[in-house]
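Handout, section 3.2

Students often ask what a structure token actually looks like in practice. Rather than define it abstractly, here is a full record for Chromate efflux transporter. The first block is the sequence as you would receive it.
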Amino acid sequence: MTTVTSETATPFPAVPFSEALAVWIKVGLFSFGGAAGQIAMLHTIIVDEKKWLDEKRFLHALNYCTLLPGPEAQQLATYIGWLLHGVRGGLVAGLLFVVPGALVVLGLTMLYVAAKGVPLVEGIFFGIKAAVLVIVVQALLKMAKRVGHTPLLYGLMVASFLAILVLKLPYPAIVAGAALAGALFVHPATESFTAPAAASGWLGRTLVTIAVWTLVWWAPVVIAALALGQGHVLTEIGLFFSKLAVVTFGGAYALLVWLAQAAVEQKHWLTAPEMADGLGLAETTPGPTILVTQFVGFLAAYRLPQPFSPMLAGILGALMTTWVTFAPSFLWIFAGAPYVEDLRSNRRLAGALQGITAAVIGVIAYLAVWFGLHVLFGQVGEASFGPFHLPTVDFKRFDIWAAVLSVAAFVLAFRFKVGMIALVGIMAVAGVAVKLTLG
């Protein structure tokens, strides 16, 4: 027996909503391992075990989600839920993918600010920084396998790396330039699909969907602006992360580059070591790695709390950040999914995607350098030569123990193939041992 969703007019197995709900709860609670691990888990459950989608249909959905800004694994879960049970299914799948991890990250962030300065906590995060450096390098290597091997794409990687390291160009500008170059000069092979029969009658419903989800997305930002003023930190957080949600192609690691530029270097909401701590929290909890944004939003509001208490302001900042980070994902899926086949058969769009992927590799390489310098030296300066800028360090501040832990983390990850969660745990224990030994 099969059923047909009103949105797609495509047959899928008749899946009881209660059974799907149980699966989405399981995914939300155990979606560790970053986007790659989460997508692999979705494939195992949806394709191999439940057989709700076949391989081709799963990959087709994944291909569409890679075109979108934002967390592709969460968007894939939303897309699959939508296919099976319409908007209700998409909402449940997408929310359950995020909420458990968001609650855990919020709790750990509150503990982080409350226990800062405690030797045990300081040691844990000292060790985690070494693991984070390895995680970023692993992400770089995984991303490099997703782009074609042509001189143009290699050139885009190098150009993007230099553009952000030497010229300090903003991340959105780099993405836009790479997309244009890819659309004009990269010509990947594309597959042809037959557009769903229901898509032709979707224009009116699509416009309504866009209007509703745009309102949902921006409502808390508008409320904050009216109640607290345009210059209040909650309004700034809403505006900043809303813009970020539109340009975060390439996942959380590419997003961190913009965070490093804006939240750390320009807005001074947190420091580079704190950013590494936030990434460590996000990597070791369920849910998308992009939940590191919640950590940033919490600290930003916590440090500029008026008229609230610091802890309440931090919670509101975290909620605002999470809302505007993930609400757009529902808009992209519910409005765009009916036209996904037409999008995937567009050669120019496919070329733009490859260009963006190449640029993302370049900016993640910059992120690895940026994190590495801050882990090893603590503070990083800058030397300017006209329009050119280069990072500088004080070699007297070189942290030998940070270097030892970093080398150990690389050996564990690349020589002994220790998994990410285990690696973070081992390095946290090692960090505590170092801090307690040094007093």
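Discussion prompt for tutorial groups: Residues 102-438 form one domain. How would you have guessed this from the sequence alone?
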